[in-house]
Amino acid sequence: MTDRRGQANLLSLAVALTALVSATALGLVIADGALAGADRDPGERRAAGAAAERLVSADATTVRENVLDRGAIEALSLSDLDALAPPVANRSVRVRLGGETLLERGEPTGTTVERVVLVAERTTRSRSVAVGDGDGLTLPRRTDRVELTFGPGSTVETVRANGRIVLHDPGGLVGQFVVEPSRYETVTLDFEGGTAQVGVESRPLRTEKATLRVTVDG
Amino acid sequence: MADRGQLSLTMVEAAVGVLLLFAATATFALGLPAAGADEAQLDRYADDAGTVLSREPPQHGGLTRLSEVTQSESAFERERAALAHRVERILPENLMYRVETPHGAVGFRRPTGVPTGRAAVPTVGGRVIIRVWYA
Amino acid sequence: MIPDDRGVTPAVGKALEVGIVVLFVGAMTTALYGGAVPDYRDAVGAEVGDRAVVAAAERVENAVPPAARDVRTVHGVDLPRSIRGENYRIAVENRTLVLDHPAAAVDAHARLALPERAESVDGAWRSSDDAVVVVTGDRGGLSVELTAREELRGER
């Protein structure tokens, strides 16, 4: 007869419940692991992105958008960076431009954000030229700033830049003047009205491309 | 004939229960896809290239390099080589690009299924679209 | 009578089984809902809150245009309807976006990286709002405001 049935049923029930409990426990462990793996710390990526964006567009570090001013960027300190981009303030960060490391705090190994930029430095080219009435002088490099120094005894009355009058004095131009031609075309200076010994100093920007890399945390 | 069905029926029920639990676990154990960080970085590259190009002086005439290229079909044909050269110099070496203008396109053919970054630059002559992807 | 060694009669045996199973289910449910489930909900809520605040901060930062003469822009912002099943607020405190949520575990903030031109940043969003970022100003200074689209309708 079926004598041990009741106990055998209970026994199998116990085994079944144990199996369910262990399966649930395993599921909880995997859930914990999945949750920990899903924590991507969005603040880290944001800090890197925000810092890169600020460096590339702030007035303090750039000549214009995406063109960094070499002097300003190399003089940047960590506290300057924190002020520019507050999300980076309590994190370890490294800023690299091209091959060299500009700033480093701690040992960041996390997200890196890269930006393509031009790095500009102003070079100075100056020369002294004797000009007569109607003479034209074309500057070989595009520039947005030219300083003209008229020596004593100059009688030039008008100076044009690419046809547009930029300086005019019927009594003769004497002294130092700044002309700001357009950055987008080479400038031809025309002198009218007399003769002069002119010192021409232009400061064209020399740019080269580089990659700015900001790495944050880990 | 004695112990045929009883033990195994409960075990079958238990097995079904365990399978259900595993199915529920599998829905979250497989993990999440990566956040698309690649595409965001590629978008930044394209945006930067567009910004740099849009402020550059032109080769011959026109307001900026990009507006020169979009001025007319003949201008585009004349300048396309210089544009391609400049874009290659601006972008990092591991990137390939395609610049689409109203008069034609310059660069490589865009592969499908690869994360690409995109930026659009408005110019006087039309919109220029720059796409970049990892080589 | 048929002699047998059974411990209990079938009916009682079945009743015992049912009782044990019910007890098991009850204990399991209590254990999970008492301990594990609220913890998971807290952790997920915290993660969602983090990401929502970071996304909102990035949206605000992108809404500020480069230097221009006169600016008045309105950008829409996508916020999750609720976090951990409840409504919440995102407010600006000291140039930082702060998430204000009834549950203690959900707590996030993101500092805003804005140019110096952005002189004032204030306002707040409720999760039920149609959230927008309004940037107004001129070359001298910009002011950034977080508000709901409904509030704007009068001004437009």
Give a structural overview.
The complex is a heterotrimer of chains A (218), B (135) and C (156). Chain A is built from 4 helices and 14 strands. Chain A is rod-shaped. The longest helix of chain A has 33 residues, at 5-37. Helix content of chain A is 28%, strand content 38%. Chain B is of the alpha+beta class and 135 residues long. Chain B has 2 domains: 1-30; 37-134, 2-Layer Sandwich (Beta-Lactamase), CATH 3.30.450. Chain B has 4 helices and 4 strands. Chain B is rod-shaped, with a radius of gyration of 28 Å. Chain C is α+β, with helices and mostly antiparallel strands. Chain C has one domain (10-155). In chain C, a hairpin with a 2-residue loop joins strand 6 (131-138) and strand 7. Chain C is rod-shaped. The chains are: A alpha+beta (218), B alpha+beta (135), C alpha+beta (156). The A-B interface holds A 2, 5, 8-9, 12-13, 15-17, 19-20, 23-24, 26-27, 30-31, 33-34, 37-38, 40, 45, 49, 52, 56, 64-67, 111, 113-118, 142, 183-185, 209, 211 and B 2-3, 6-7, 10-11, 13-15, 17-18, 21-22, 24-25, 28-29, 31-32, 35, 37, 40-41, 44-45, 48-49, 51-52, 55, 57-58, 63-64, 89-92.
Low-confidence stretches of chain B: none
Which class of secondary structure composition applies to the elements of chain B? alpha+beta
Low-confidence stretches of chain A: none
**Regarding CATH, which class of the largest domain in chain B?**
Alpha Beta
**Helix and strand sequence of chain B:** HHHHEEEE
Major interchain interface with per-chain residue totals = A-B, 43 and 38 residues
* Whole-number total of structural domains of chain B: 2
Given the C-alpha coordinates, what overall shape of chain A results? Answer: rod-shaped
Alpha plus pi helix count of chain A: 4
